Amino acid sequence: MSDAPADSPAEFEASLEALEALVARMESGELGLEQSLEEFQRGMQLVSRCQKALDEAQKRIEALAADEAAASVNADPAPTPNVPGRGSTDEIPF
């Protein structure tokens, strides 16, 4: 693989490309049984690596969304306009 961290987008892309190439080799029908088994095992490792990267990305998205939601709850609300009859003593209702 590459020198990129295991959860980096580059590592995910490299794993996905390797998985696609592996599937193409297996579908070609030119591999023997032992080679097919080895390729299948390697494919399962690649799938696991890709799933881990996707799970980490999902966690990051959820954390960002939670931070954004918390920030919007803690933000100053928009000022409420004075509505006659709603406690405002500055206006005379007509």
What is the CATH architecture assignment of the domain at 9-67? Orthogonal Bundle
How many helices? The count is 2
SSE topology string: HH
- Class of secondary structure makeup: mainly alpha
CATH topology of the domain at 9-67: Helix Hairpins
State the share of residues found in helices, binned by percent.
55-70%
Shape: rod-shaped
pLDDT under 50 segments (min length 5)? Answer: none
Question: How many β-strands, per DSSP?
Answer: 0
* Rg measurement, Å: 28 Å
Strand content: under 5%
CATH class of the domain at 9-67: Mainly Alpha
- For the record, give the distance between the C-alpha atoms at the N and C termini, rounded to a whole number: 77 Å
- Arithmetic mean of pLDDT: 82
Main pleated-sheet profile: none
Descriptive key words:
mainly alpha
Commentary on this structure:
The structure is a single chain. The protein has helices spanning 9-27, 33-74. The longest helix has 42 residues, at 33-74. Helix 1 packs antiparallel against helix 2. The chain is rod-shaped and about 90 Å long. The protein is mainly alpha-helical. It has a domain at 9-67: Helix Hairpins. The model has no long low-confidence stretch (mean pLDDT 82). 65% of the residues lie in helices and 0% in strands. It contains two helices and no strands.
Please outline what is shown here:
Helices cover 65% and strands 0% of the residues. With 94 residues, the protein is mainly α.
